[in-house]
Every structure is written in C-alpha cells, then in structure tokens.
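Report of the visiting student (M.T.), summer placement. My assignment was to run the structure pipeline on a short list of targets and document each run. The first record concerns PRA1 family protein.
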Amino acid sequence: MIDDRSIFITLSITTIIVLLLTDVTRNLVVSHAIGRATIVLHALLRKTDDLFVDEEETASLRPQP
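After the run finished, the structure tokens were exported:
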C-alpha cells in the first residue's frame, strides 16, 4: 500500500512543476497579493467599538418588572 506522505509529496512536486511550466503562477501571485491587500484594508477600516455589549447600558434599557 502507498503511504499518504508519499502521495502528498508526489502531488505537491507535480503541482509546483505544472505551475512553473504554465502562466498560472503569475495569476496566483497577483490574486494572492490583492487578497492580502483587501484583508489589510479591511483590518484598518473596521470599527471594533461596537463589537461588545455594555451590560450596564443595556440593563437600563430593559423594562423593570
């Protein structure tokens, strides 16, 4: 029976060779860079002030029994 590690190594090497022989590598690098830039931009613009609940503030809004 073939070891899973051998299959993984063979498929990884084959994938790298095919990527280098085609023009897909450039597309992957560009799309990866755009994705990373989008994530960084989102992290910079995201507001975290309203992600928690102030229990004292919400307790005053609830009707008392």
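The radius of gyration is 25 Å. The mean pLDDT is 85. I thank the supervising group for their guidance throughout the placement.
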